[in-house]
Amino acid sequence: MTSPIIITGVGKRIGYALAKHFLAQGQQVIGTYRSHYDSIDELNALGATLYPCDFYDDAQVQSLIDELTQLPPIRAIIHNASDWLPDPVLTKNEPLKSTTFTPSQVLQRMMQVHVSVPYQLNLALEAQLRAGAGDEIGGSDVIHITDYVAEKGSQKHIAYAASKAALHNMTLSFAAKFAPEVKVNSIAPAMILFNAGDDAVYQQKTLAKALLPKEAGNAEIIELVDYLLNSRYVTGRCHNVDGGRHLR
Fold first, then answer.
1. Which family does the record assign (predicted)?
2. What is the mean pLDDT of each run of 10 residues along the chain (248 residues)?
């Protein structure tokens, strides 16, 4: 049996697509999820090993780490789990709007899911990742899924953008720390898939932000992940998938 690939946040979108992709190749997949969707039952039926874990709950995170550190050598870990909290709207004479969290809570939660948990998992699984490389230089991988806003910032999701920038910075540190057995890279997508409720006006406005005005689709990320896993000479880099938004 192949060494497992761990993917956090497999319930929907990119994480779900990646899990199905690797399972179809006969790859052992271990996934985490916060909310139970029909996709979780599907992945279970396809042979994935899945752990429910709320990354905002320190006790659950520690239990997950305790489970994962019992695994054999690991081929890769893909840090995909994410949340997208807007910044609170503050005015002089009115209470918070747009979110039930205070500014401090929003920042803490974004840093928890995008920085603290990946940091803890990487450190806890270092030996298994190195072992998963076998005798190959760069034979195993850590991939952080960040966001194109880590480079340009965001007016309404400042805490989110800051946490994704911190996640990429950890890419640099872990790439140096885990070399030469483990490659560590980040992928920074922009709009990959529209949600079911996104109307035509929103879609048109969003597409116009890119030089390549189209919905990228999960295949773009899957192919890039495959490239990074197969490469033996790329580490410590951010790979942007933004359709040229940075040039608008």
1. Belongs to the short-chain dehydrogenases/reductases (SDR) family. FolM subfamily.
2. 92 97 98 97 98 98 98 97 90 56 95 98 98 96 97 94 98 98 97 83 88 91 98 97 89
Catalytic site includes residue 37: no
Residue of 160, 202, 227, 233 marked catalytic: 160
